[in-house]
Amino acid sequence: MTTNAGTYRADRLVIAAGAWNARLLPRIAPLLQVKRVPLFWFEPVAERDALAALPVYIVDSGVGHGCYGFPYLPDQGLKIATHGAGTPADPDTVERDAHPVDEAPVREFIRTRLPVADGPVRAAKICLYTVTPDEHFIVDVDGPVAYASACSGHGFKFASVMGEVLADLALDGTTRHPIGFLSAARFAAARA
Q1: 3-class DSSP state for residue 91?
Q2: Is 111 helix (H, G, I), strand (E, B) or coil?
Q3: pLDDT surpasses 90 at 188
Q4: What secondary structure letter does DSSP report for 84?
Q5: Residue 62: predicted pLDDT
Q6: How far apart are CA 9 and CA 7, in angstroms?
Q7: H helices of 42-86, where?
Q8: How far apart are CA 183 and CA 134, in angstroms?
């Protein structure tokens, strides 16, 4: 592989490049869609202690997407974002600023389901979700290349086991973990 910093050679490679996987893994590129998903942190108008005691949650809104959130943290606010939504994006040119249209579905969720959180936005960031047609990961090996992709915004929860699986695949070509259901081949079987 040649980069701006030099040329690198290896017998085996692990690729887990998030939104840029399609550029590095052309074989699975048609299965990957990058979405721009805005995340918001709100300052609640009341009940901060109760909001700090919330569990991590996800709510199905019944309109094609839901919202998820994390407990209130005094130094950050109450994190809430849509789940299952987002707009197609190019990771190299994605709009990194949040706009009122991005906030609207989250604000509607707050007003309907969590009105004590209907305060000002403290912060907003843009996250890139990479999703597959079935919204599950792709974890596979292709010769000397092991890869993981399309973790759909929740891959961090599986980081320790994914690291182990990818190391196994890179070093041994197999893993003791049951990952067959995450194989890229499942999409070929679905089209047959």
Answers
A1: coil
A2: helix
A3: no
A4: S
A5: 67
A6: 7
A7: 48-52
A8: 12
